[in-house]
Amino acid sequence: MSCLVNRKLKIIAMYLPQYHITPENSEFWGEGYTDWEAVKKSKPLFSKHNQPRIPLGNNYYDLSDASNIKWQAELAKEFGIDGFGFYHYWFDADKNLLSKPCELLLKNKDIDINFFLSWDNASWKRTWSNVKIGNDWAPLYEKKTEDGKEILAELVYGREEEWKNHFYYLLDFFKDERYIKIDNKPIFSILNQDNNQIVLKEMCDYWNYLAQKNGFDGVAFIGKKKNNDINYTEYSFLYEPEWAGWTWKNSIERLELKIKKSIYKGSIQKFSYDRIWHNIIKNAKKNKESNLFYGGFISYDDTPRRGKNGKVVIGASPNKFRKYLYELCKVSCKQNKEFIFLVAWNEWGEGAYLEPDITTQYGYLKAVKSCKEKLKLMR
């Protein structure tokens, strides 16, 4: 079976740029912290719990070294990954965190991989904070302080002058030949559409104006689809396993979980790999939105960061992943979708990674390549 579409389907892997030491990592979670610290120290918390996850060859790489990014790009292309979606952590003009890997990619034109930026537009908060939309990255490693601050890094949208600064930082990326575009519009995804949507809508309109001034037809904004149907971007995508996993619990399941968590503090939430993927396929088949792209995932286990307060998806394997990804690719081809977004290339602290480990080795990467060869999508 070939993929009979006007544009060939592309599989994009989301990419975490966290694996390098920064002053903020050290300040927030301990001297020299990267996610590798949590991954290395993780322990099994129940029978047959696959922890710790160990990279093949003990390859705990450092993303401040461009050669490691080049290795990732070569590996990704070899197994059929068409590009990376780099998470982007812009808080204001003076605080743009974890940007070094993407800036190294921009600088080193010999790194042959397509890419785009995905803005995780939320403050970084402390675990106990009441901030509604924020990331509490690594609760197990959060440093105790006496300052009482709830915010580690605060997102400040500002107004036109701040939006202009942000846009012109991004413009060099947008102009790169490797940057992924739709109809002369550079892709830029927004992960939290409900984080002050009025301001975000105004910012998107302004960026479209600036993009047109700089030779583009606008910006192809892709918003993460929310259950509350907030969606003002031209395109949207499903972020898995969140959409078809824990947000799909019915009212009885949610009540049971709430009671369980109130009685047993530190209760690991477990989810079925098969059930989540069945929901993904079912939702895709019945979708009628032409500008909605689908997401898939490899596996999930954030206990390295959260311990007994974590979420674990049970039952993942390369064979299952290959079967489900193939079904999702077929649906995407039939509906003439251009992209599938996978979580993730290297989210080791959340157990969501395509990179080889000592247990499955290249199994998940081979699964991607097998799907694309079967659909005649390999370049």
Automatic annotation (TrEMBL):
Which is one GO molecular function term here? Answer: transferase activity
Q: Extract the Gene3D superfamilies matched here.
A: Glycosidases
Would the keyword Transferase turn up in this protein's UniProt record?
yes
Decide whether keyword Nuclease is in the record.
Answer: no
Q: What Pfam families does the record tag this protein with?
A: Glyco_tran_WbsX
Q: Which UniProt keywords apply?
A: Transferase
Q: Could you identify this protein by its name?
A: Glycosyl transferase
